[in-house]
Structures are given as structure tokens and as C-alpha cells.
């Protein structure tokens, strides 16, 4: 089956405004502190790079990345989460913020949360650009959420289908092409 871009769900301007708000909120919450921002590759790259530039200089920001196994060329989760690339930093005693593109079933984030907690950070929070509440299977506390979206497969602004469309500045719904 092949997929095609359908309508725009979130435009470039709408995303930009919301990312700026999230950056302000994070700046207030972490003012005077050091914060390690961990991006989940590859989907969170675009969001993270915009978000950290909206965190002001009252926060000492460091950036790290990890990668987990992805969906492959499918729009359904396998339910199996595997670390493909770990972070370089030692997060023990540090304030840490995991940045992810989307919470779908929540399996990825619940796994990552538990894994990072084992390393004894001082604080651990989660920031997602998108949340699909209709799909949740695992309980995860989201501290910062950009948008709540319906149960549709979306691409753009870092999100992909089979590796494609991450570069689009807006977020689109994809549907099977007729
Ligand atoms: P779970 O189910 O573990 O999944 O919360 C999180 C990961 O699934 C991918 N995902 C999507 N990717 N459009 C995408 O491009 C979507 O609509 C979508 N829903 C889930 C994504 O990689 C996320 O990290
Ligand atoms: Mg992802």
C-alpha cells in the first residue's frame, strides 16, 4: 500500500507559536539551572532544534540524543522498543528533559522514562510535540505537550512515513492512496 499527503493538520505558523510558548514555559521552570535536553532520534530533531532556541539564557542547556528502534515502513507500532544509540552524557544528579515527537501508544516513552530513571537524574520530565490520547496503552506523565491530535498518522516537522517527509515545515495527515 502507498500513502499520500492529505490535509494540513498543523501549519508552520501554528507550530512556531506553540513551540515558542513551550520554550518560555521551560525557561521559567528551569531558570538558574542546568538542563540536559535529550532528543529521541530521528523524529524529534526538528522540534528539538526549534525548541532549544526558544529557551532563554537563564537556563544552561546541554543537548544529547538517543535513538530507539522505529516503526520501519509501517504505520503500526511493533510494541518492541530497543535502544539503537544511547546518550553520551552521565545524567546522574542532573535535570533532564526527554524531547519526543509524538506519544502514540506511550510504549516508547514509558520504556525511556524507566531507563533514564535507573540512572538517577535529579529530575526527569517529558516534552512531546504531539499526543494521540486515543491510542495510549502505557501510563506516562507528559510535562510539556505541544498539541493533542486525533488518531491519524501524521508526517512533517520531523515525523516521517518510511523515512520521508520529515523536512516539511507543516504537519500533514497521510492516508492510503486510492
Ligand atoms: P509509541 O507508540 O511508542 O510510539 O508511543 C512513539 C513513536 O511512534 C512513531 N509514531 C509516529 N510517527 N507519525 C509518525 O511519523 C505518526 O502519526 C506516528 N505515531 C507514532 C514515532 O516515531 C514515535 O516516536
Ligand atoms: Mg520517534
UniProtKB/TrEMBL annotation:
Q: Name one GO cellular component term.
A: cytosol
Which GO BP terms apply?
Answer: GMP salvage; guanine salvage; hypoxanthine metabolic process; IMP salvage; purine ribonucleoside salvage
Q: Which cofactor does it need?
A: Mg(2+)
Q: Which domain of life is it from?
A: Bacteria
Coiled coil region boundaries: none
Per its record, what are the GO molecular function terms? guanine phosphoribosyltransferase activity; hypoxanthine phosphoribosyltransferase activity; magnesium ion binding; nucleotide binding
Give the reaction(s) catalysed: GMP + diphosphate = guanine + 5-phospho-alpha-D-ribose 1-diphosphate; IMP + diphosphate = hypoxanthine + 5-phospho-alpha-D-ribose 1-diphosphate
EC number from the UniProt entry: 2.4.2.8
Alphabetically ordered keywords of this record: Cytoplasm, Glycosyltransferase, Magnesium, Metal-binding, Nucleotide-binding, Purine salvage, Transferase
- Under which pathway is this protein filed? Purine metabolism; IMP biosynthesis via salvage pathway; IMP from hypoxanthine: step 1/1
The record's comment on protein family reads: Belongs to the purine/pyrimidine phosphoribosyltransferase family.
Protein name, as recorded: Hypoxanthine phosphoribosyltransferase
Q: What is the lineage of its organism?
A: Bacteria, Thermotogati, Synergistota, Synergistia, Synergistales
Amino acid at each position: 500500500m502507498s500513502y499520500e499527503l492529505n490535509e494540513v493538520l498543523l501549519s508552520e505558523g501554528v507550530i512556531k507559536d506553540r513551540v515558542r510558548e513551550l520554550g518560555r514555559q521551560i525557561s521559567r521552570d528551569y531558570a538558574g539551572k542546568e538542563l540536559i535536553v535529550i532528543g529521541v532520534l530521528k523524529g524529534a530533531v526538528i522540534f528539538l532544534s526549534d525548541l532549544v532556541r526558544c529557551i532563554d539564557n537563564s537556563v544552561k542547556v546541554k543537548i544529547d540524543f538517543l535513538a530507539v528502534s522505529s516503526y520501519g515502513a509501517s504505520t503500526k507500532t511493533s510494541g518492541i522498543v530497543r535502544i539503537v544509540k544511547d546518550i553520551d552524557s552521565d545524567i546522574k544528579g542532573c535535570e533532564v528533559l526527554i524531547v519526543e515527537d509524538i506519544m502514540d501508544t506511550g510504549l516508547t516513552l514509558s520504556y525511556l522514562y524507566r531507563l533514564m530513571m535507573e540512572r538517577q537524574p535529579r529530575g526527569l520530565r517529558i516534552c512531546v510535540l504531539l499526543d494521540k490520547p486515543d491510542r495510549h496503552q502505557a501510563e506516562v506523565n507528559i510535562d510539556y505537550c505541544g498539541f493533542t491530535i486525533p488518531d491519524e498518522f501524521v508526517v512533517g516537522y520531523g515525523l516521517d512515513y518510511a523515512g520521508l517527509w520529515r523536512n516539511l515545515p507543516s504537519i500533514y495527515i497521510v492516508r492510503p492512496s486510492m
